[in-house]
Write a structure and sequence with these properties.
Layout (H helix, E strand, L loop, with lengths): L4 H27 L3 H5 L3 H16 L11 H9 L3 E4 L15 H11 L6 E5 L8 H7 L7 E7 L19 H8 L4 E6 L12 H18 L4 E6 L2 H7 L1 H12 L9 E6 L6 H17 L6 H4 L6 E6 L6 H11 L3 E4 L13 H10 L3 H6 L2 H16 L47 H5 L14 H12 L7 H16 L9 H12 L4 H8 L7 H15 L5 E2 H9 L15 H12 L6 E2 L1 H13 L3 H4 L6 H7 L3
Parallel strand pairs: 1-2, 1-8, 2-3, 3-4, 4-5, 5-6, 6-7, 7-8
Antiparallel strand pairs: 9-10
Length: about 625
């Protein structure tokens, strides 16, 4: 009897989990409860046990495929997702624009409305006047659990190893208690130098227990999350130690065991399948030693939760994050936006949107996804002083544009007959516009856009008009191609750019287009436009405008005479009349400043920054008048 796809997924998952549990249990029985003794085994013996565990934990997660990986997709679709928000801290890491206290307070106001239940407040330091310290001091009551970072040791080592007593309290731990906060992320290195100085697993667990009790003496509900911040290095140098550290924490009594385990991929260079394999190994180890995820059971408790934080360096971060979630992570530590670290990190905005796209209902109900995406834009601006990059996935301005007029490509027409995930139905398509509640995607115009797309974009920008049809769309596309062929870098997706293209092609502007161009904010060209306005009004004198003859004498004729155009002959009355109509938008044979400004804006938008940085009073008109 053939099994269904869902039954096969369940069977594969059960097989993988069972094999991993058996392997971990085998490792435990082989070494006994004394993991220090296990670490003392010959390297070949330890490596063989570790390799067996890795093979079993990975199991079918990375098997060769035909179609899609149904097991991974099912996990990503059905899991509960925990976000440990780091928007207060991560975006300012290595940023040329650091956060001020006002920035942090504004970020806090953003984060409070997104549904996050766990938020990192900062890194307390020895200097009480740092922004993180000032923010932590005045945090007060919050609708979320506030976390801080602390080192595992104060690094005042004795004989090369950490000391755990009241005189060697790490500053982060001490300041957290002083500020009335209760929850600490303990930063632990699997490859720290003290491991080479007779620092044992028993010593490690002693430190975890001591800091847990120390914190709870000052706050009865204090909790720790242990962060293996160099796990990627550890999985290459000492993978058996990494596994043993997790086992040692898992087998602690529950009242002194860390609430959750966090690990990082800080280099941004390891493949998704590699990090996914490490994740499966850690999850299987935690489960086999009595530290399962309560979060997947009830969506509230973080006991036994496994989290990951991924830095961006080579473009792998978002894929790594999804593979880690599929491999057993319960969630991520991340800011809403990607800013931070060297080249950023895997953000919650992108991760949550991907999970929603894959059909995960938990993220849709648990978090305010629209708010998260808008928050990503706001935190980016607060951190960098600049808007989000136009091609930023999910929360950038181009993320939801309708780009192509055909199917089988991202940004193209949606083919609702295509079963995108191999689930057996084509009715489960979820797109970013749906997540954000955008009924109509903004159309992007370019050389491959169809006439229909040009007509649709006209209506989007300027409202309904009987002239906005495919015939006009074809003319506009031909006009765009001609401008590009002549060397004009014409942009026509923005309302101003499209209005100016319409004017170039048809010689007219609708009322809505005129209003659009008049109100255009040409950031970066304000000085040039002001200079041009001064020049125009100097020629205008006390009048309300210029007759076209006077305007032409000052601004046009110098470019139409035989000595000033590429043909070497006077261009004649017909050309002059066509030029007049281009400037005289209302046909009254007078030119006012708003009409001239339309032309100048087009000329500036058709130039690279280097050629646009001259005076506007004469060369801009010339640039528009030169035949091409």
């Amino acid at each position: 009897m053939a099994v269904s796809a869902s039954e096969q997924v369940d069977a594969d998952a059960a097989a993988a989990q069972g094999a991993a549990r058996n392997a971990v249990q085998h490792l435990r029985e082989a070494s006994g409860d004394d993991y220090d003794a296990f670490m003392a085994l010959p390297e070949d013996a330890r490596r063989a046990a570790y390799d067996e565990l890795v093979r079993a934990a990975r199991s079918t997660l990375h098997a060769p495929l035909r179609g899609v990986n149904a097991q991974k997709r099912e996990r990503l679709k059905t899991m509960k997702v925990l976000i440990l928000d780091n928007s207060q801290r991560e975006p300012s890491v290595a940023s040329v624009w650091g956060h001020t206290l006002a920035d942090k307070l504004e970020i806090d106001s953003i984060v409070r409305g997104l549904g996050f239940q766990h938020v990192i407040a900062g890194v307390p330091t020895a200097d009480a006047n740092t922004v993180d310290d000032l923010f932590c001091q005045q945090l007060g009551d919050t609708p979320y659990t506030s976390w801080t970072f602390s080192e595992f040791t104060d690094w005042n080592l004795m004989d090369g190893v950490p000391v755990f007593d009241d005189t060697h309290v790490p500053v982060g731990m001490r300041k957290t208690a002083e500020y009335g906060l209760r929850h600490v992320i303990l930063e632990v290195d699997t490859c720290a130098s003290f491991w080479d100085c007779n620092f044992s697993l028993a010593d490690f667990t002693e430190g975890v227990v001591f800091w847990t009790r120390w914190l709870r003496e000052r706050a009865t509900d204090g909790t720790l999350i242990v962060n293996l911040r160099d796990l990627a290095k550890g999985m290459l140098r000492c993978p058996d130690r990494c596994v043993a550290m997790v086992v040692a924490m898992a087998e602690l009594p529950r009242d002194v065991r860390p609430a959750a385990l966090l690990f990082e991929e800080p280099f941004g260079e390891y493949l998704p399948c590699e990090v996914g394999g490490w994740t499966a190994l850690l999850r299987a180890t935690m489960d086999a030693h009595g530290w399962p995820s309560k979060f997947q059971e009830n969506g509230e408790s973080i006991d036994g939760a496994l989290l990951i934080h991924v830095h961006r360096q080579w473009g792998l971060a978002d894929a790594v994050t999804l593979d880690a979630l599929a491999g057993g992570c319960d969630g991520i530590m991340a800011a809403v936006c990607e800013e931070g670290a060297a080249l950023g990190h895997a953000s919650s905005a992108v991760a949550l949107a991907n999970l929603a796209r894959l059909g995960n209902r938990d993220v849709v109900t648990r978090y305010n996804l629209r708010g998260v995406i808008e928050g990503a834009r706001q935190v980016t601006k607060l951190t960098t002083g600049a808007p989000v990059a136009v091609r930023q996935p999910v929360y950038g301005p181009r993320a939801i544009e309708a780009v192509f007029g055909f199917t089988a490509v991202g940004g193209g027409v949606v083919d609702h007959t295509f079963d995108r995930d191999g689930s057996g139905t084509a009715a489960d398509d979820v797109f970013l516009g749906d997540i954000l509640g955008v009924a109509e995607k903004p159309v992007r115009l370019h050389t491959l856009a169809t006439p229909t797309q040009f007509a649709e974009r006209l209506a989007q920008c300027f409202g309904a008009d009987e002239s906005f049809d495919d015939v006009l769309g074809a003319k506009l596309k031909d006009g765009l191609l001609a401008l590009l062929a002549s060397g004009d870098k014409a942009e026509c997706t923005s309302p101003v750019g499209l209005a100016l293209l319409h004017q170039r092609v048809t010689g007219t502007l609708t009322e809505a287009m005129v209003a659009c161009v008049k109100g255009a904010n040409e950031g970066g060209h304000d000085v040039l436009l002001t200079q041009a306005e001064v020049c125009f009004k100097e020629a205008q004198g006390d009048g309300e405008g210029l007759t076209y003859s006077k305007f032409a004498e000052r601004f046009v004729d110098p470019y139409l005479g035989a000595r000033h155009n590429t043909f070497g002959v006077d261009l004649g009355d017909k050309v002059r009349e066509a030029v007049r109509k281009s400037f005289d938008l209302d046909g009254d044979r007078d030119i006012d400043w708003d009409e001239y400004r339309v032309w100048l804006v087009w000329a500036l938008r058709s130039r690279t920054p280097s050629t646009a940085s001259t005076t506007c009073s004469r060369p801009s008109s010339g640039g528009g008048l030169c035949p091409g």
